[in-house]
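Appendix B, record 7
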Amino acid sequence: MLGEARVEIGWCGREDSNFHGSYPTATSTLRVYQFRHDRMSKMAESRLSKRERTPSKWHLACEVFFLVNTHTKSYFHDMTSGQENQNWLDKPVAWAVSEAPVVYEDAVAFMEARATAIFKGEADEVVWLLEHPPLYTAGTSARPGDLLIPDRFPVHKTKRGGQYTYHGPGQRVVYVMLDLSRRTKDVRRFVQDLQRWIITSLDQFNVKGEIRDGRIGVWVDRAQAGHQPREDKIAAIGIRIRHWVSFHGISLNVEPDLDHFAGITPCGISEKGLGVTSLVDLGLPVSMDQADDALASAFVEIFGPVHRTDAPEFK
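Structure tokens (predicted):
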């Protein structure tokens, strides 16, 4: 049993050359199609109200960026039914949403404690949705020169893989604490499941994505005929695994201030034609609640049922 094994999958950064070939490949393409109501699927259209339709150690690095737009809550499991699930994987995962911004240190402390409790069998799995105040995080591969404006926002060193990234208001952060010893001890498969979770959310809006070899992340192709190629990132994965329990998670740019990314070289990638975007920047009228609902419905499809629970509270 690899009780001390840790896996760090960074919010950003390039693939660790020591693990070339370990990064999960993906052939799905990410392209943003014009958001036209007459092209929406009947299922997605039925989910929108009339008003909404109108206007050992491994160090892996990977990111996935995604777009979402839906509104439904029927996927939440009724925990008052009293019915017992025979299959452990059918046991609903706790789904918590914090309304107020959460201090980064508080979030990390909670995740560390909850991951340990899950490993010991003292707590259930949980998916925690929140926003942070403006801040930068530095992964294990962060280069000092990529912190362009050191005094702009607080900088937090983190044990996840990857380089610098930004978190702040308008960005949905989802911390995923799952027991992989009961689900899968295949790290590549778990990362692929996270990717499928995001891509399934994208499909609800006729948005597809592409994961590039050698350039971590999922990118929005914004190239126009007659112009230079352009690709922007819109979400990320940053997972750490300890005792086969995952923590940290994914982030989605719904409506953050994109200028805040200018204080760093996001993920160490500064090539011409590559940038950062958000749902609002792409012209998609997606609220935070709609993003949450899309993520929940897609999570149920990939990982299994969820049930609402209270979010952690801090003094």
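Remarks on this record: The mean pLDDT is 75. Helices lie at 42-46, 50-53, 104-119, 180-183, 187-203, 288-303.
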